[in-house]
Write a structure and sequence with these properties.
The chain is built from 13 helices and no strands. The chain is mainly alpha-helical. The protein is globular. It starts with 18 loop residues before the first helix and ends in a 10-residue tail after the last helix.
Length: 324
């Protein structure tokens, strides 16, 4: 019997090429979804006074990891404006996050619909759909309580999402790359934020729940790709190689750049946004760092080709020397 990894970190060593090892991995992930899961309302004390959202609370101010926080423009703003900018950005990110998770859930259901009876992926896919639904409830409840104008994805992304959903059935390998493109950067951002001092307790609770369960979702997506990509034909592998940096570059920009409504509402000069997020080497490195795990996975799977490397570099998300 193949040993089950003792932690999610150990799963990187799992021999997913072997059916037995892969099945054990999925059973472990499903078991963790049973014994360590969260309810959006039972496990968040929404009505506790300590969890109340006050837009003037300085704990909403942008964290040090956000490039805008270090700009002279942001530092010159009244403390209440700085806190409202931070809260507004969090709320918009949550709205976009729940819309992304809607795409993910619908794609997972498309993926599961074609699985045969007895497939261990079927059970885990449904566990993930349930967990993502609770994340969406948390995010929407936060948006409802913040009292700010919170739009979601741009219209062109809404239209494009319909194509992504269909990939769950037609091309699941590309679908799960999309999943990593959306989840890995925000997971990186949230882990960085949780290391900050004096995080608002409501935000901390939501992020800890999200990070805990997303660890399983990311593990499943990575190991599915490790198992399936080597089995693809030449043409589909080339499609993945070129599409990966397009997806990752676009998703990281959407997740990490300041939302247009925040820029417009607080009159943030375009020159400040450009200097903070596009010209500052530290900001560009932060984006590359947020994609480190998925970039390493693509390299391991042979999806970084001479042609696709040009795309990685064009988006500014490649880090390190050319792969051998």
């Amino acid at each position: 019997m193949t040993a089950i990894p003792t932690s999610l970190d150990d799963e990187a060593a799992a021999d997913v090429e072997r059916d037995e090892a892969y099945g054990e991995l999925l059973r472990r992930l499903s078991h963790q979804s049973v014994v360590k899961h969260f309810d959006a309302y039972a496990d968040v004390a929404w009505d506790d006074p300590a969890m109340a959202i006050d837009p003037d609370d300085q704990r909403w101010a942008l964290p040090d990891t956000d490039p805008l926080s270090a700009t002279e423009w942001y530092q010159s703003q009244d403390p209440s404006v700085r806190s409202r900018i931070g809260l507004h950005r969090i709320a918009v990110n949550m709205k976009v996050g729940l819309q992304f998770e809607s795409i993910l859930k619908r794609g997972l259901l498309e993926y599961a619909s074609k699985l045969p009876n007895g497939s261990p992926e079927f059970r885990y896919a449904y566990h993930e759909v349930i967990e993502e639904a609770h994340h969406s409830l948390m995010f929407q409840e936060f948006v409802n309580r913040c009292g700010l104008s919170v739009p979601g994805m741009p219209w062109h992304m809404e239209i494009g999402s319909r194509r992504v959903v269909k990939l769950g059935r037609r091309f699941p390998e590309l679908f799960f790359l999309f999943v990593l493109g959306g989840e890995d950067p925000i997971d990186h951002v949230q882990r960085q934020a949780l290391r900050q001092d004096d995080v608002h307790p409501l935000l901390e609770r939501i992020m800890r729940i999200h990070v805990t369960e997303e660890a399983r979702h990311l593990s499943f997506a990575r190991h599915y790709l490790k198992r399936q990509v080597p089995r693809l034909g030449w043409f589909k592998r080339q499609v993945l190689a070129v599409q990966a940096p397009f997806i990752l570059g676009q998703m990281a920009a959407q997740m990490l750049m300041p939302p247009a409504v925040v820029v417009r509402t607080y009159g943030i000069p375009r020159s400040v946004v450009r200097a903070a997020y596009r010209s500052d080497p530290r900001s560009r490195q932060f984006v590359r760092d947020s994609l480190r795990k998925v970039r390493q996975l693509c390299t391991e799977l042979g999806l970084v080709t001479p042609l696709s490397l040009l795309v990685w570099r064009a988006f500014g998300i490649w880090d390190g020397p050319r792969p051998s």
